């Protein structure tokens, strides 16, 4: 930190610049395969992608899927003032038959169940009345959400193997329902909901958003570059370098078989933005060519002078994103690791390809073309005195706002609860879309859409034991009796429906002989009754599945539903000892969503703590001054905590996108502080605090402003997304960068005046003349 140039670094940069055409050729060779692999990166926003593969709940879910392959499900809600009217039944029946004939789609409804008892059903007035009577005779279909006062539902099971196949099947379903969507009469509306539709919309919006972000950021880069450096040659050097960095990053993701999700799609834009900011620091020093120094010598000096702060900056940002690797939320972990990889690539590109392009394109310096913003020199003269005069007010205000932000996110025991967590994928889509409105309407009229699977593991043949079947039925009805539970669907539900179809009521028999006969018939029913295969492990008859349906917020705390089910199961075993041979496990989308919410705050705190620790260690080696190590984090922490306060004030929840704001802002905005302190200590070593501040503002201040504008403008592009989490992430992150910059020029200098206990040079001189020590 003595400001002297390193002869070793000079030699390296002289060598790299001398071999500039070889460097250009090397990147030209790397670019085609990178683009090829980048174009083959898939997009997957499914819930399963949110959990790391080593997680025990994820492994349980995968094992469960092997035993009970359920595929994906879509629910169609046919609304009508009288859902039992003959013309309504006829239209729903025709629609269900068309959907069932698609292939890869298994359609079922209360009508299809009724057709088993009345194979010749044609929706005549007489048969319509019979269907109404049949539905009114039991609550089985109503509890499952298949019928209601104003709707009939069609459940569609999709036999699909991935997002591409799923989207193809959904497109086929849309073609079948297109006419009803356009002219629903005699229906009032046809609502289509389900995770497959949510996943498709997330993928589509994410893909479309990325296509919008890059052109917008490109336009922003052109305007900023031309207005700042006033050179198309400099613009070309910036554009080529950043595009190569992004191509190599995404190409690396594709080469290792990576998949982008709703948050990992931030990787290319994050790398593009941070790489551009690094180039601004390098080029801003480069264009400041003093008179009498050759282009060649000054380029080597600029690269050598900015190597340490730029390297420390990239290292700090690298640490910020690499710290996300502790997350148990898979896309956050992957986004962190891939962004860290991209930052390492961008660092290499910035100090190899960019200097080569500077020399090849002969990008102009201020000796040829003056840099914009001459007013900044006047600003640097006045700012130190302003921050000295208001130092206590500026620092106190910043600390107070930090406390407010910390309370906003973590809460205050007994006064304010911690910030709300959001993992429901439905909340990630635009609330104005038809899909969102239809799903919310569906949740209102039926018992719920959140599904938790209960996996009962027993001994071979134990499921068909009469006592076990009777116990499972009592357990199911005991769980259903809780008002928070919408319904429980399992093997005994299917048996009850079959008995109801046979005219024997909708309850299982109490008589022991009848129960033994029903259990004996179960094995023969399995091959011919597909619905039973969904709930019984047919190969060994050792396992059973119960689907527990609730509203999304019925059990808000992580583990509440699992504990509730375990308590009911213990009561059931006490009542029916035959159930004691079974082991109960909970799995499915409901528990996975709850676990994601459970890990969101640890992701924030652990990754944030690791980032702070790593940046502190980085400062320890770069800046030997203890005050510098502490003061350097003030602007970033201030910006982040104020953002959390604003999120709380405007009701914006934490989710897998907005929770990344803290690490993103801390990692990226620390670049400004590193450059600030590098040049501050460079001058203050042999001068005063005021001299250090003026030197810093003159050398790095302009770069800090324009690097911040690039960061803020780049992330602000996400505000145009149709996905609320991405919109919030982009807006809040951009605002945080601006707040961090404001703190760079206010709270940070004010804190330095306090820590170093110095006065402005003019004031010290005046006091010295008056003999004041």
Textual characterization of the structure:
By secondary structure, this protein is an alpha+beta fold. It folds into 3 domains: 7-47 and 230-421 and 594-766, Multidrug efflux transporter AcrB transmembrane domain (Multidrug efflux transporter AcrB transmembrane fold, Up-down Bundle), CATH 1.20.1640; 71-200, 2-Layer Sandwich (Alpha-Beta Plaits), CATH 3.30.70; 459-581, no CATH class. It is 64% helix and 7% strand. It has helices at residues 7-18, 20-39, 56-67, 86-100, 110-117, 125-136, 140-143, 163-182, 195-229, 232-255, 266-287, 295-322, 330-350, 353-361, 375-389, 391-410, 434-445, 466-480, 491-501, 512-525, 530-533, 560-575, 589-622, 626-631, 634-649, 661-684, 689-716, 724-745, 747-756, 761-769; strands at residues 42-43, 72-79, 105-109, 151-158, 189-193, 259-260, 450-457, 485-489, 543-550, 583-587. Strands 3-4-2-5 form a 4-stranded antiparallel β-sheet. A 4-stranded antiparallel β-sheet has the order 8-9-7-10. It has a two-stranded parallel sheet with strand order 1-6. The model is unreliable at 1-5 (pLDDT under 50).
């Amino acid at each position: 930190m003595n400001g002297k140039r390193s002869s070793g670094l000079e030699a390296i940069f002289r060598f790299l610049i001398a071999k500039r055409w070889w460097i250009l050729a090397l990147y030209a060779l790397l670019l085609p395969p990178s683009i090829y692999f980048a174009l083959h990166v898939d997009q997957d926003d499914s819930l399963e992608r949110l959990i790391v593969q080593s997680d025990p709940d994820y492994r349980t879910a995968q094992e469960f899927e092997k035993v009970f392959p359920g595929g994906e499900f879509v629910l169609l809600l046919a609304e009508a003032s009288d859902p039992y009217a003959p013309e309504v039944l006829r239209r729903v029946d025709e629609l269900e038959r068309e959907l069932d004939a698609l292939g890869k789609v298994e359609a079922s409804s209360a009508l299809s169940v009724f057709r088993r008892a009345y194979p010749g059903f044609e929706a005549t007035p007489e048969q319509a009345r019979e269907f109404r009577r049949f539905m009114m005779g039991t609550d089985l279909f109503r509890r499952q959400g298949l019928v209601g006062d104003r709707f009939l539902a069609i459940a569609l099971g999709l036999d699909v193997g991935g997002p591409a196949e799923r989207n193809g099947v959904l497109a086929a379903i849309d073609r079948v329902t297109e006419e009803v969507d356009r002219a629903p009469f005699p229906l009032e509306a046809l609502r289509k909901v389900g995770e497959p539709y949510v996943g498709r919309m997330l993928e589509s919006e994410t893909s479309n958003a990325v296509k919008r972000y890059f052109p917008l950021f490109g336009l922003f880069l052109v305007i900023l570059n031309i207005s700042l450096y006033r050179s198309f040659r400099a613009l070309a050097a910036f554009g080529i370098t950043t595009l190569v960095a992004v191509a190599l990053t995404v190409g690396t993701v594709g080469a290792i078989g990576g998949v982008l999700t709703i948050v990992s799609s931030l990787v290319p834009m994050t790398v593009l933005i941070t790489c551009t900011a690094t180039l601004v620091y390098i080029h801003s020093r480069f264009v400041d060519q003093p008179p009498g120094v050759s282009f060649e010598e000054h380029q080597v000096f600029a690269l050598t002078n900015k190597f340490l702060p730029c390297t420390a900056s990239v290292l700090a940002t690298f640490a910020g994103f690499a710290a996300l690797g502790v997350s148990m939320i898979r896309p956050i972990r992957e986004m962190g690791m891939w962004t860290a990889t991209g930052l390492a690539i961008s660092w290499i590109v910035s100090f190899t390809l960019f200097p080569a392009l500077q020399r090849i394109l002969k990008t102009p310096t201020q000796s040829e073309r003056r840099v914009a913003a001459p007013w900044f020199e006047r600003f640097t003269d006045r700012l130190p005195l302003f921050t000295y005069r208001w130092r206590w007010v500026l620092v106190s205000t910043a600390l107070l706002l930090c406390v407010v932000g910390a309370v906003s996110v973590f809460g205050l025991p007994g006064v304010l609860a911690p910030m709300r967590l959001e993992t429901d994928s439905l909340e990630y889509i635009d609330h104005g879309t038809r899909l969102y409105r239809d799903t919310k309407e569906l949740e209102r009229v039926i018992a719920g859409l959140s599904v938790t699977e209960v996996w009962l593991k027993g001994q071979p043949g134990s499921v068909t034991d009469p006592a076990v079947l009777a116990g499972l039925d009592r357990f199911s009805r005991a769980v259903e009796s809780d008002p928070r539970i919408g319904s429980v669907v399992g093997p005994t539900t299917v048996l009850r429906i079959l008995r109801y179809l046979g005219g024997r009521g909708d309850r299982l028999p109490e008589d022991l002989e009848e129960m033994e006969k029903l259990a004996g018939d179960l094995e023969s029913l399995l091959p011919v009754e597909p619905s039973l295969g969904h709930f019984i492990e047919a190969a060994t008859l050792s396992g059973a599945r119960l689907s527990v349906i609730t509203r999304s917020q019925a059990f808000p705390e992580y583990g509440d539903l699992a504990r509730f089910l375990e308590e009911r199961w213990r009561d059931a075993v006490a009542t029916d000892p035959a159930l004691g041979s079974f082991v109960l496990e909970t799995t499915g989308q409901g528990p996975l969503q709850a676990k994601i919410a459970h890990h969101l705050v640890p992701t924030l705190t652990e990754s944030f703590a690791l980032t702070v620790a790593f940046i502190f260690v980085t400062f320890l080696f770069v800046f030997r001054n203890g005050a510098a190590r502490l003061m350097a984090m003030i602007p970033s922490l201030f910006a982040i905590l104020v953002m959390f306060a604003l999120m709380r004030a405007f009701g914006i929840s934490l989710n897998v996108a907005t929770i990344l704001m803290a690490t993103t802002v801390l990692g990226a905005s620390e670049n400004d502080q590193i450059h600030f302190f590098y040049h501050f200590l460079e001058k203050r070593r042999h001068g005063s605090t005021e001299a250090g501040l003026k030197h810093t503002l003159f050398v790095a201040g302009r770069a800090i402003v324009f690097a911040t504008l690039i960061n803020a403008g780049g992330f602000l592009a996400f505000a145009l997304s149709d996905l609320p989490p991405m919109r919030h992430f982009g807006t809040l992150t951009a605002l945080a960068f601006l707040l961090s910059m404001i703190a760079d020029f206010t709270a940070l200098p004010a804190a330095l005046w306090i820590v170093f206990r110095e006065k402005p040079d003019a004031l010290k001189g005046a006091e010295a003349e008056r003999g004041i020590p």
